[in-house]
Amino acid sequence: MFELALNYGSEPLSIKTISEKQNISEYYLEQLFGSLRKAGLVKSIRGAQGGYVLSRPPSEITVGDVLDVLEGPIEISECIEDEDNCSRVEYCATRLLWIKIRDSVNQVTHSITLEDMVNDYKSMNIITSIKRGE
Amino acid sequence: MFELALNYGSEPLSIKTISEKQNISEYYLEQLFGSLRKAGLVKSIRGAQGGYVLSRPPSEITVGDVLDVLEGPIEISECIEDEDNCSRVEYCATRLLWIKIRDSVNQVTHSITLEDMVNDYKSMNIITSIKRGE
DNA sequence: TGAAAATCCTATTAATTTACTCGGAAATAA
DNA sequence: TTATTTCCGAGTAAATTAATAGGATTTTCA
Fold first, then answer.
1. Of B21, B120, B128, the CB nearest to A96
2. Per-residue confidence of chain A (134 residues) as pLDDT tens digits?
3. How far apart (Å, rounded) are the C-alpha atoms in residues A29 and A16?
4. DSSP per-residue letters across chain A
5. Rounded CA gap, A98 and A79, in Å?
6. How far is CA B134 from CA A89, B126, B127, B131, in A?
7. Which residues have CB atoms below 7 Å from chain C, the nucleic strand?
8. pTM summary value
9. Does B85 touch chain A (CB under 8 A)?
10. What single DSSP character describes residue B49?
11. How many CB atoms within 10 Å of residue A70?
């Protein structure tokens, strides 16, 4: 998704290209992009010169959106989602803890967009160039 | 650890007792307490009427201390710890993301103490009593 | 002193998850 | 029409997690 964001506005990127740039297996990427497409985060263009593009601008896709699709929403503990399971009061102090951790992660992932990542990446490159004395 | 905190200042709690209160297998608890003891978070008293006690007050043990021992420190991605692995600049934007997530979780877990959990638990019980009209 | 109650220690196992592989069908551009 | 590419579903290997098991050691207490 980072590669698609970097490339946003240009031609579609094929799985083969992304696989090479990010060093992730083609077969595996295929699976991931299947899910991302069904979730509406990317659009696919089939056939030669096809590939994938983001279906929204990078500024409107958060890391959390992507993780929710690829890894599922965070499940720190069953008792958070499945409240009826939690019949035993002793657990409840723990439950509050899991909720705080989950919310904290969601807060981070859903506030960082692909655009942020691209910007971080670009400014990082500039700093690296300066350090090398360029 | 929550049970030990609830019981802090009184007699040692045996694995059998904790197993019953928290509905966790005795065998499994044994393993966990082995690690906790080696890490210095609990003291053991062997023999009849023995068991475990916290080696510091609940206010001085954070949830993060416990999780670091039982689950190991958070490893969101290898490239955070093992910086030399990360030779490819393309990864770096992602790396910053993993660091932010990790730090966020650590911030939560290392700021909540066992005492906090006990207090939450106790005030929760009071509220529950009130709701029941007691 | 001996039996019961505990921890201590190491090895094994079953279920689940994760990353990955594979083969072939369908769509499209050149 | 052929090469390129997505689409789809099934299968696999390694790692992790929670749990199990058995026996040795330590300590209390009657």
1. B120
2. 999 999 999 999 999 999 999 889 999 999 999 999 999 999 999 999 999 999 999 999 999 999 999 988 887 776 655 555 555 554 577 888 888 999 999 999 999 999 999 999 988 888 888 888 87
3. 9
4. -HHHHHTTTSSPBPHHHHHHHHT--HHHHHHHHHHHHHTTSEEEE-STT-EEEESS-GGG-BHHHHHHHHT-S--S-HHHH-GGG---GGGHHHHHHHHHHHHHHHHHHTT-BHHHHHHHHHHHHHHHHHHTT-
5. 9
6. 17, 9, 10, 7
7. A 24-25, 27-28, 30-31, 45-50, 71; B 14-16, 30-31, 33-34, 37, 44-52
8. 0.86
9. no
10. T
11. 15
CA–CA–CA angle B85, B87, B92 (5° rounding): 100
Strand-strand pairing, B51-54 and B42-45:
antiparallel
Tokens of B21: 């209160």
**Distance from first CA to last CA of chain B, Å, rounded?**
30
Task: For residue B13, list its beta bridge partners.
Answer: B52
Domain annotation for chain B: domains and CATH numbers: 2-131 (1.10.10.10)
Tokens 């951790």, residue located: A101
Contact between B53 and B42 (Cβ < 8 Å) = yes
A45 φ/ψ angles, rounded to the nearest 5 degrees: -120, 115
Per the listing, tokens 């991931």 go with: A32
